Amino acid sequence: MNIIEKRKTWFTISIIIILAGLLAMPINAFMGNGILNFDVEFIGGTVMEVNIGQDFDIANDIRPVVVEITGDENPQITRSGAQGVSIKTKSIDPETRAKLYNALKDKYNLDGMNDLLNVDDVSPTISTEMQLKALQALLVSSILMLIYITLRFKDWRFGLAAVLPLIHDVFIVLAVYSIARVPVNNSFIAAILTIVGYSINDTIVVFDRIRENKKVAKKGDLEGLIDKSVSQTIVRSINTSITTLVTITMLYFLGVPSIKEFALPLIVGIISGTYSSIFIASPLWYEFHKKSIAKTA
Predict the structure, then answer these.
(1) Alpha helices (H) in 33-185, listed in sequence order
(2) Domain coverage including residue 204
(3) The pLDDT value given to residue 114
(4) Do 230 and 107 share a structural domain?
């Protein structure tokens, strides 16, 4: 495989996707939609609890009514008790609340005195402190991985070339959230941290093979060394990712909305992680190695 020869192509593909996501953020903000589609957990909202008093279907009966009246494309609707429903949306005014309840009242012939159990504003469940802690966890884990890989391979270039693709994967996932307006909720933080932990595995496998082949490779033939090492590990990397993707994809198509919101970023992250392990990490190591040689020449 000509991984190194076409490295500029791989880098360009990633840069285009990341830039598209970054550009979509201010565009969304200018249009009044926010840089990202933050869910109720991040920005707070309104919760309404209603006793339906009969069987109902959330996806086909409740959700369309809520979306139409509130304009919130991603309301959180769950069952409350045997025949009750809890509806969480972005903040809505009293007039909209009344309109929503009246629509449910007419649809299910509710008793206006007893069936509206509760309606109130709620604060964000994901605080600024929690967001900062998640960023700290991401930063600390990246630094520790950088140190560990550098010590294990006895070469800082391996460590840096392994950690930078993790940042690449995070930005790719952010680009998808920005462009596709995927709701950003508590699943987002868990998914990002999971992706970082998963993505590093394939990279280490490739780097291990590079280190082994380096002992017998022709001196100075870095391109041949990397292309050979990637070719020897690419089938394993792709098969591992496909196996994981099958499971996560089934969760996405068959799971409830909360599971789908967690599965989607994982799908994107796994694809991005496999791509970066093969087409980004090794070319980065090549660039760092080449620059080091040029400085000492």
Answers:
(1) 40-43, 63-70, 94-108, 128-153, 156-180
(2) 7-30+127-296
(3) 74
(4) no
Task: Tell me the pLDDT band of 1, cut-offs 50, 70 and 90.
Answer: low
- For 47, the token pair is 């919760």
Report the pLDDT averaged over residues 81-100.
85
- Using the structure block, give the residue that is written with the tokens 């008790």: 81
pLDDT-derived band at 180, boundaries 50, 70, 90: confident
Buried b (16+ CB within 10 A) or exposed e, 76-111: bbeebeeebbbbbbbebeeebbeebbeebbeebebe
Cβ contact 157:292 at 8 Å: yes
Kindly report the CATH number assigned to the domain that includes residue 18. 1.20.1640.10
Give the number of C-alpha atoms closer than 13 A to the C-alpha of residue 187, restricted to the C-beta side: 17
Q: What is the pTM (predicted TM-score) of this model?
A: 0.77
- Report d(CA 217, CA 79) in Å as an integer: 62
pLDDT tens column, 190-239: 888 888 888 888 889 889 998 888 887 777 678 888 888 889 988 888 88
- Please state the separation of Cα 128 from the chain's center in Å: 19
Exposure on the CB side of residue 64, measured as CA atoms within 13 A: 6
Parallel/antiparallel/unpaired status of strands 84-89 and 45-51: antiparallel
**Tally of structural domains, the chain:** 2
Domain end, chosen from 66, 93, 122, is at 122
